[in-house]
């Protein structure tokens, strides 16, 4: 008898077996309807096999659905990703079907001539309509406009049966990119990198690369050339370019359109579902070559994937922590391995993991030297705030103010960087010292002046700013403590009333369109001083920007997190790298209370290698990533006792393992969110330990009650 294993979107670790009727043709990757209890469920066939005899009473596959079959590479990838992240394979598989669950775009209604029917009363406007239409079909409103008549005339012709309304299925056409549309002339480093990637693509097989070069060195230009060569070698090649942030996609799409004379497909949460469905269907049909997307694009059903680019590969936004927990960069490498494709990790500040892999020879290390053309890296200086303390309740020191003034006089632009949304990160009561937090949550409320609200950035909770202290009832006692971008902008406006200022953060720039508009006005020179969070620090090119001021360079260094130093180094390198991207040289000033901090000293000296070496030594001494591996188990629930008990039960049943330690349970970093208690257990293992195997064995010993949610985070980003 024939048996199919079917992945069903349920939180269980295995596929379900079903009998396949003899006459039913089923293959791996097929979408099927199968009975589960009283319901029919959609599932994906992960395996079809012959078994002897009817060993068990299996239910039968109801039918094979009329939806596209998932390509083998996609099924392999989904199964691998589920094993790696210890997630349910059926749920992983259903992420690969996200695009299909969207409704189809509405069909377009058009009118066309009914053959052999002439208008009973031919008027001048009716004749105009019929002449305009000729043998075509058109939307009625467009036709009326083109014929210069009211839409009533068209409707009259439809009523008379001279025209008929037809519905046309909206099939997205993706123009074929032309590799020779507008080629660039590459410098020697770029050409060597592009060739190495292109040759690997042509040779076929898994080939991972680190593309390493300072901001503005022309990494994008280099990988676009590799894309062009991949397309020249195989016009059906599919290429996936992943970006960490939706705000960056528009600029890259514009570059791709210029380079290849065709728009790529776009895939991220900001794309309307009907459009996503069109992209999904085009990808699985091989009708679409280039996809630019967020990490979820990794689950698209590519049929001929040749190259994946992960741009800004170090960026923590590639890590997904809600729902399925995975790192987009790591999964991109896995997908390339499964598909036998090349993968390019590009960054000016690669993650230590990637540098480690490149150093060990697992990835080929491609280096781009200087900035392209005449642009040079900005001159970076530390401003010691101990010697230049800002006035009370202000955040800009005298030297930074002077630099902004000089830049304004020269007609150039300034970026003030502070990675804090809103007006003030903390609101507290002067009378009793109470700090305002969201209900049942450990996170402070952030004051937003533009909207006049206090907002919890973790849960999204918000409330009007209260008149009295919610704790002691004192009136007019609440004060905003510390600066956010809105507050720095307020100070800038007071200091430079004539300057044109703007704030760039996820609050002022909520979507891709707003981001595009603000970026464009910056490029057009309509803004003198931009105060920005990391949303603007990444990737953008502002030719007239010559001064970057980092308001609080110590900010990211304060937490004792595993990646605090690495992240700060990356973020500040990105931020300061915004200055001087074109002909005019730039400079960056970093305000700090700790100018002796090794991270800041390395930044000022432009000494990335020195920083990496020191940080690697520390990680190696502690056997932390990339020298060891981590996993976090987070238990959460409204019932604190149940959470506590489950954590204890886990702690009591740790399997014996060598070169591996378990820490905790302890309060998770955010121990209370929306009334849910959170406990955490941490695992550290040597690199060669089978961490996933250990976790599976461990979790098999403990029953987690329904009231407690267990989240497994393999290779957690923060620690
Ligand atoms: P990166 O990705 O390393 O930040 P980009 O590829 O964006 O660098 O290049 C930075 C700037 O230099 C861009 O404006 C780009 O158009 C320009 N540029 C890079 N390489 C070339 C080249 N070979 N010819 C012309 N312009 C280039
Ligand atoms: Zn109070």
Task: Produce the secondary structure layout.
Elements: E1 2-7, E2 16-20, E3 31-36, E4 39-50, E5 63-64, H1 72-85, H2 89-95, H3 98-101, E6 108-113, H4 124-133, E7 137-138, H5 140-147, H6 151-159, E8 163-168, H7 188-203, E9 207-212, H8 219-233, E10 238-242, H9 249-260, E11 265-267, H10 273-284, E12 290-293, E13 305-311, E14 319-320, E15 326-327, H11 328-339, E16 342-347, H12 352-359, E17 364-367, E18 379-384, H13 398-409, E19 413-417, E20 426-429, E21 446-448, E22 453-455, E23 462-464, E24 478-481, H14 485-495, E25 501-504, H15 512-523, E26 529-532, H16 534-537, E27 545-550, H17 564-576, E28 587-592, H18 598-604, H19 608-621, E29 628-637, H20 640-652, E30 660-673, E31 676-686, H21 691-699, E32 709-714
Parallel strand pairs: 9-16, 9-17, 10-12, 10-13, 11-12, 13-16, 18-28, 19-26, 19-27, 25-26, 27-28
Antiparallel strand pairs: 1-2, 1-4, 3-4, 3-5, 6-7, 6-8, 14-15, 20-24, 21-22, 22-23, 29-31, 29-32, 30-31
Bound molecules: adenosine-5'-diphosphate and zinc ion.
Could you describe the 3D structure shown?
- This protein is an alpha/beta fold and 719 residues long.
- The protein is globular.
- The protein binds adenosine-5'-diphosphate (ADP) and zinc ion (ZN).
- One of its GO terms (molecular function) is zinc ion binding.
